Amino acid sequence: xxxxxxxxxxxxxxxxxxxxxxxxxxxxxxxxxxxxxxxxxxxxxxxxxxxxxxxxxxxxxxxxxxxxxxxxxxxxxxxxxxxxxxxxxxxxxxxxxxxxxxxxxxxxxxxxxxxxxxxxxxxxxxxxxxxxxxxxxxxxxxxxxxxxxxxxxxxxxxxxxxxxxxxxxxxxxxxxxxxxxxxxxxxxxxxxxxxxxxxxxxxx
Length: 204
Known about the structure:
Helices cover about 65% and strands about 0% of the residues. The protein has helices spanning about 1-25, 35-60, 60-75, 85-115, 120-135, 140-145, 150-165, 180-185. It is elongated and about 55 Å long. The model is unreliable at about 200-204 (pLDDT under 50). It is a multi-pass membrane protein. InterPro entries: MFS_dom, MFS_sugar_transport-like, MFS_trans_sf.
């Protein structure tokens, strides 16, 4: 339970930092702030539908990992884009934001299913508090743009890929009987391997 809680808390903290930093960083993308803000809001609309369809078919952990790694790669790729081509940077940053929003949608389902009923509210409250503290780093990440326009996106991308990789260490919850007591929570996923989330889970 401790291992799962620490991984979930780290993922929540990372998603919060990634999502908010991408939102605050729109003014550093080299295009009109209002246009960038509008596009950022528009790309979130399909993200929830995509996330819902994917996690119902492929499970939670693998989909969370894929969204975070794809978003991280999109952000890191901005380092190769010359400043004379800002719209390519905007497109990659918005792909990162779409993936971050989709990952958040998957994560909220996963954390609710992994934590046992008897401690779910307390554990989610503590994890939310810790992730809120992590948001203090967002202005500093965005401020890196004074040294290079792509530096905030590189930092966001690296954090996204690390957090995505850690999600593979969580047990899959799709089509599984969910834990109700502390004993259930301790036993849930105990025999799972790193590759278990790669396989389709069976029916109940």
